[in-house]
Amino acid sequence: MIEYVIMIIAILGAVLALVQRDLLKAAILTGVPGAAIAALYQLLLAPDVALTQAIVGSAIIPVFFALAAYRTMRMEEE
């Protein structure tokens, strides 16, 4: 039962990241599905895969996306 809740959290996190208009918020929200999938791997008794997913999916990729979004910010025309 808890596996389904974690899968729903991962899907909702991905959808939230997709519908964001602010690129920085979207980049930060990409870590939610990564953390949820890491928790799912831990529940499925794959701690090595869970640790790798937690590091890459919920830490490194969102930071790189946030840095890229921050470096490419454009001023909005009024």
Automatic annotation (TrEMBL):
One of its GO terms (cellular component) is plasma membrane. It is found in: Cell membrane. The chain crosses the membrane at residues 50-70. Residues 8-74 form the MrpA C-terminal/MbhD domain. Keywords: Cell membrane, Membrane, Transmembrane, Transmembrane helix. It comes from Methanothermobacter marburgensis (strain ATCC BAA-927 / DSM 2133 / JCM 14651 / NBRC 100331 / OCM 82 / Marburg). This is Energy-converting hydrogenase B, subunit D. The lineage of its organism: Archaea, Methanobacteriati, Methanobacteriota, Methanomada group, Methanobacteria. It is a multi-pass membrane protein. NCBIfam families: PRK06280.1. The gene is ehbD. It comes from the Archaea. Its main location: membrane.
